[in-house]
Amino acid sequence: MSAAISAEQVSKRYPDGPWVLRSLSLDVAPSEIVSLLGPSGSGKSTVLRLLSGLEREHEGRLLVQGLEVRGPTPKVGMMFQEPRLLPWRTVRQNVAFGLPKSMASGPGETRVERLLAEVQLTEAAERLPKELSGGMAQRVALARCLAGAPSVLLLDEPFSAVDALTRMHLQELLLSIWTHTRLTMLLVTHDIDEALFLSDRVVVLRGSPARIEETIPVDVPRPRDRRDETLGPLRAHLLEALRLAGNGHTKEAADGPTGFIAGW
Fold it and tell me: Where are the alpha helices (DSSP H) in the chain?
């Protein structure tokens, strides 16, 4: 089966700036959840912006569902770190904003109500964004993404601005939606536990320009238990891959502070 997302030898630099990505290749299978994990500035968000069509100048090929990315498309939904809701629209109206323009009002209204129920916001449908908690606002943003019926969902640290407990609830909500939609998801995160809880594979990016340092399968059946002891060795492996184990045995630790900073 062909990949749902494919990046082939992709390179990206900004005008008069350094290379952000250099010859990066990555495939994501249909219905797979893959996390991009790495330090700030390692090109993770740039990969998503290129795949979403928000960034267009690059070398190499980017394909979604076998078609070359030439700009934003309804096939691809994108969630950002902040919800980016329209402040003058209600929750219901913000979700409806994501509907395809070709959809008739009747089916569109039905889809909006179904999505509101799915993200547990039916009772908050007439509230304005200023009346919402951070977690509620991100649920609205998620429902708005899903309103367009995408086949691929790109998530750029969508839960980073909420507290730890809310983040866990949002992760479980995302998996619940994936269970019946089987959307292909590519997630950018700095949270190792989030990557392990959600993903089929974790791709570690490092360096400048970014390179794929390692791809780690998470062969733990769903639904996963956060307390599952089999996740422990994977967590330790990721900490080592990111040079964050803190045990004094990594190359950066041996090189001293200068070596560590250069590695980031």
Answer: 44-52, 91-96, 105-118, 134-147, 164-181, 192-198, 231-241, 251-255, 257-263
What is the pairing mode between strands 59-64 and 5-13?
Answer: antiparallel
CB 9 within 8 A of CB 56: no
Question: Each residue of 79-109: pLDDT tens digit?
Answer: 999 999 999 999 999 999 999 888 878 889 9
In a shared domain, residues 71 and 155: yes
Tell me how long the chain is: 264
Whether the model clears a pTM of 0.85, i.e. scores above it, the answer is yes
Same domain assignment for residues 39 and 133:
no
Sequence letter at residue 182: R
45 close to 81: Cβ distance less than 8 angstroms: no
In a domain? residue 258: no
